[in-house]
Amino acid sequence: MSTITRGEFSEIPVLDVSGLYGGDEDAVRAVASTLRGYLENIGFLYIVGHEISQSDIEAVREASKQFFALPEEEKLKLRIDRNFRGYLPFAGSTIVTSSVATVSKPNQSESIFFMHEVDANDPRVAAEKPLQGPNQWPDAALLPEFRETIERYVAQMTTLARKMVGAISISLGLSPDELNAHFDDPTTFLRLLHYPTQKAEEGLFGSAPHTDYGFITLLAQDDVGGLEVKNKAGDWVPAPPIANSFVMNVGDILARWSNDVFVSTPHRVINRSGRERYSQPFFFDPSMEALIEALPACVAEGAAAKYEPVLYGDYLMERIDKNYHYRKKQAAQESAAR
């Protein structure tokens, strides 16, 4: 599939990444080579052969179901805070920064966000650095194993994501650690999503057409389906669930970093199933202080980079502030208080 014309695909490919485990350099390079073709031409693929057990994936899904089944007043005790951690009620975001559609209706979902854990006594918290603070957790008396389940999964996903960063680095002719150096203190998000059954209405989506902001996304789906990826012809290609796999896709910052060698592909979610849908995307992004500028390996000799350098934290906050309703309300309240 790596020889196809960019954007011309009718299915999402599957990549066995077991070669990234075990220390065989030839196996790693073989995975990286195939990966590059998929990221250049499609921007989406399924990952299999990883070392995260299906039981751990399912444990997070069950924890998610238990949380969203709580009474609304319990969920609202964890309402999303200024550090982007906590519960986002139904229809709490509208993707106004979408470059692929004019979006005016909010996403038909509710969610809870867990980011990289930052202790309340961390100097970054005292300095009010963006997105730095502790996570919010449900009452352990209500969901006694919830936090342990989520933290174990985040650790596993971080390990897998670092392996994929290394493979991407190798695929560009760089050392395995060259990109990973920008992830010393990674910006991570685990978002647990609940999509209720969706009514048919023009312009209404579980998640409206968009591209992801960050570096890579690793998504575990349930068996309901609904994820679709847009190809060059404008067709929406289904990405149906595959057991014990993750859907991986390129985010905008990786496309920018690679000078558009890699493609950040539009996708959407429409829950036509008549069933409730649960998904758990894990977003693995650079440190907030990382300077993102086109990699020399991705800029032709004598050519200029397509994008100006940008601090990842500045870039990320601009998008979050525009797309999440609660951020706009916070900004208005802070402005009025001045």
Automatic annotation (TrEMBL):
Give its E.C. classification number.
1.13.12.19, 1.14.20.7
Every Fe2OG dioxygenase domain range: 186-286
Q: Under which main EC class is this enzyme filed?
A: oxidoreductase
* GO MF assignments: 2-oxoglutarate oxygenase/decarboxylase (ethylene-forming) activity; metal ion binding
Q: Supply the alphabetized keyword list.
A: Ethylene biosynthesis, Iron, Metal-binding, Oxidoreductase
Needed cofactors: Fe(2+)
Coiled-coil positions are none
Mind telling me which PANTHER family this protein's record contains? 2-OXOGLUTARATE (2OG) AND FE(II)-DEPENDENT OXYGENASE SUPERFAMILY PROTEIN-RELATED
Q: What's the protein called, per UniProt? A: 2-oxoglutarate-dependent ethylene/succinate-forming enzyme
Which species does this protein come from? Nitratireductor aquibiodomus
Its lineage reads: Bacteria, Pseudomonadati, Pseudomonadota, Alphaproteobacteria, Hyphomicrobiales
